[in-house]
Amino acid sequence: MLSAMAFVSSILPYIQIILAILMVTAIMLQTSEAGVGGAFGGGDTFGGSHHTRRGFEKVLFNTTIILAILFAISSLLALIK
Questions:
Q1: Largest alpha-carbon pair distance within the chain?
Q2: Alpha helices (H) in 1-81, listed in sequence order
Q3: Which tens digit of pLDDT belongs to each residue from 31-75?
Q4: Torsion-angle region of residue 53: left (phi > 0), alpha (psi -120 to 50) or beta?
Q5: Rounded to a whole number, what is the distance in angstroms from the first to the last CA of the chain?
Q6: Within a 10 A sphere around the Cβ of 60, how many other Cβ atoms?
Q7: Alpha-carbon distance 60 to 2, whole Å?
Q8: What is the pTM of this model?
Q9: What is the pLDDT of residues 4-40, one digit of tens each?
C-alpha cells in the first residue's frame, strides 16, 4: 500500500494539469472592457469608471482566484515532494 505522500506525488501532475486547464478557461471566459487605450491608462470615458461585478461575472472572478490559489499550493507541494 502506498503511503499518503507517495499517493499525492503520483497524482499531483494530473491535478496540476486539470487546475491549469480550468484556470486558463476561467481567465479566457472573463470579458475585458478595456480597449487599447485602457492598456495605456486611458479609457473610453472621461474620468474614472467603477465596474461592479455581478452574477456570473462575480462567480467566474472568484472561481479564477480560487483556482489560482489551488494551483500555487499544488506547485508548492510539488517542490516539497
A1: 65
A2: 4-29, 36-39, 56-80
A3: 776 555 555 655 555 555 677 888 999 999 999 999 999 999 999
A4: beta
A5: 18
A6: 16
A7: 37
A8: 0.73
A9: 878 888 999 999 999 999 999 999 999 776 555 555 6
